[in-house]
User: Fold this.
Amino acid sequence: MDSRRIKGKVVQRFLRYVGKRADGHTVLSTSISEAQVDEVKLYGPLLVLHHLAEEIGLREHLGPYANEILSMVYAHCIDYRSVNHMRTWFARTDLHWMLNLERLTEDRLLRAMDFLESDGEQLQRAIFQSVKQRYRLQNSGVIYDVTNTY
Assistant:
């Protein structure tokens, strides 16, 4: 329906029938088999990763390239691609609004990686402290390295 006010009166115009409400649910007037999918975006797993990153304050540790770094972290967790393929992967996601990144360029990604290398150990310590604090973890444990064990 399209509602307009004409000469002080509300006039409604019928546009098209899309379905009805039955038992509190919308019943569509067309078969789902007639629906056409134009595009599929990766969203759910990114939402979970983004929530976890926000929970530990990861963005605050990552400096001026935080959003670019987060996009690479999410890509690595879900569907690893090289920096060369990030633009294609990024286009299949909704990260542009989640991370406020309209234009993701290879140059910005490479600069972000350079930033990470500038003081990687200190960054790792800071992130670890945030995780420890958020999840109330203790500094105890056993590490058993099975690298090169056959």
Remarks:
- The first strand starts at residue 2 and ends at 6.
- The chain has seven helices and four strands.
- The radius of gyration is 24 Å.
- Strands lie at 2-6, 9-13, 19-22, 25-28.
